[in-house]
Amino acid sequence: MYKRWYILCSTVVCFIALSASAISFDDARHLLNRTGFGATPEDIEKLTALSWTEAVDSILSTVTNAPTTDKPYWADEPVGGLSTLRLRALAGMRGADVQLERAAIRRRQEAQRRNRITEMRTWWWNEMIRTRSPMTERMVLFWHNHFTSEISVVNSAELMFQQNQLFRSNALGNFADLVMAATKDAAMIIYLDNNSNVKGNPNENFARELMELFTLGEGHVYTEEDVREAARAFTGWRVNNLNKKFQFEKNLHDFGEKKFIGKTGDFDGDDIVQIILALPRTAEFVTEKMWKYFISEDMDEKAIKSIAKKFRDSKYDMMVLARAILMSDHFRAGANRGNMIKSPVDLVVGACRMFETHPAQSQQISAYGTMLGQNLFQPPDVSGWKSGAYWIDANTLITRHQLSRLVLARPDEAFVKNFENRQKQRRLARLRADRERREIEHLLKGQKSMLEDMMEVGGDDMEISMDSSSGDMDIAVDKALDNQMKPEDQVAMEFKSLKPMDMDTWIKEKGLDGKGRKRLVKTLLPIAPVHGIEDMMMGTDMVASILLDPAFQLK
Known about the structure:
Layout: H1 2-21, H2 25-35, H3 41-47, H4 52-60, H5 82-89, H6 96-130, H7 134-146, H8 151-154, H9 157-169, H10 175-183, H11 186-191, H12 205-215, H13 224-233, E1 237-239, E2 246-248, E3 258-260, E4 263-265, H14 269-277, H15 280-294, H16 301-313, H17 318-327, H18 329-332, H19 344-354, H20 359-371, H21 394-408, H22 413-444, H23 450-458, H24 471-479, H25 487-496, H26 503-509, H27 517-524, H28 539-547
Antiparallel strand pairs: 1-2, 3-4
C-alpha cells in the first residue's frame, strides 16, 4: 500500500514539476516576438513544450553567420561592379572610340549603382521575412543602428552589403572583435570621414563616434582631449581608392606620443580600441543598449551592472549577454510585455512572417517600411533611429492602418506577374554577369579583347558597342550556362508551390476559427485588446478588428 502511494505521489510531483517548467502560450509569444519578428501559432506552440531555459537556448542555437536567402549576384563583385574591372581593362587603350566606351560604361555604372541600392534594400527586407533565424536578423538590425552608416554618404551598395554581412557574421559573436572589425570597415571609414584624417590635420569624427556611440556613451569617461588624441591615433586609417578595402598609410599616420584616458604611448587605432575595451563602462553601455532593445526603455541600474559584469567577464561574448538578458526576471515580467511600440520593421516583417504572405505581397508591404520612416541603410543621422513614441504620429498611424488593410487583401494578380518577371530579369542579370566576368578575366590576363580585334579591322572610325543587353548576348544568356535550367524555368519552379493566401483560409488552416478565437487574439496581440472583439465577429472581419486595435501597434 505504502509503495503504491509513494509511486502515485512521485508521479503527481513529476507531473506538477513538468507542468511548471513548461512555458505558457503568452510566454512563448513574448519570447519569439522580442527575439524575432512576428510568430505564427505553430511557432508559439512548439515552444510551449519547453521550459524557459530550453526555449531561450533553442532560439539562440539558431543564430547563424550566413543569410537564408540568396544574396544579390553582385555582392562579391568589386565596388562599381564589373564595370570597374572593364574600365581597368581599357586603361592602356587609346582612341576616340575607347573614350566613348569609357563614358558609356560610367553612365551604365551610375544607373547600376542606383539599381543596386534598391535591390539591396529589397533583399534585406526579404531576408528578414524569410530567414530561418529571426534572432540573427534582429541582431543585424541592432548592429546596423549601433554602428550606423548611411548609403547616401557611402554611395556604394557593395560596401554597405559588406557591412551588413559583417554584422551578420558577428550577430552574437564577440563584441571586441566586432568593434575592431568595424573600425576597419570601408563603409564606416568613408561615412565617418576618416579618409581625411591625416597627420597634422586630424579629423575627429571617427574617434568621437567610436566613444560616444559605439563603446562608452556620450559624456562617460572620455574628455574632448581624449577625442583629439584618439583622432591622432587613427590617422592613416583609410580606404584604398582602387580596391575600396582598408589600408594603413604610414606616411599619413601620426607616430607621436598620445595621452588617452590616463595612458600614454605611441598609440594607433588598435591600441585605442583595446584601452576602451578594458574600461568597465564599455560593457555597461552595450548592456544598456541591449536592455532597451529587448526589455524596456526603463532601466534597472543594479540589474544592468550585474549583467554587464557577466558580459565583461566573458571577454565580451555577445551570446553570454543575450542569454543573460533573455533569462532575466525583467525580460519575463508582465510589466515589460506590450510596453514597446513596434518599429516599422517590426510591423512590416512581423505581419509578413505571421501571415506567411506571398513574396510579391511581401515586397508590396515592405514599401511601407520606408513610408513609416525606417528606410533601411539610410538612418536619419549618425545616432540612428530612435524608438518608442518616435514612431507614432497622426500621419504614421493612418499609414499603419493602411498597411493592416493591405495585409488582409489578396495580392493583385498583375503585381504578382510583374514580380515574377522581375525575378526572371534578376536571373538573367546573374547569367550576364557570369559571362561578362569571364570575358573580363581574359581581358585582364592580357589576351586580345574583342575591342582590340575590332579596332585592328576598322580603325579609329569603327563604332564599338559592348552593351551586355545586345542580341548576341541575349541569345547566349537564353541558352544559359552549361547544364543549368533556364531562368524562366527556375522562377516558375520557385513560384509553383506558392499561392496567395486569403485571410479566411489562413484562419482555418491555423485552427483559429471557432474555439480557437481566443488563441487568434493571443497570437496577434501582446496584451488584451483595447476595444474588445465582438463575439459574433468571424474570419477576416475579426482579424481586421484585431489589426486595427491600438494593442497591435505594441510588442
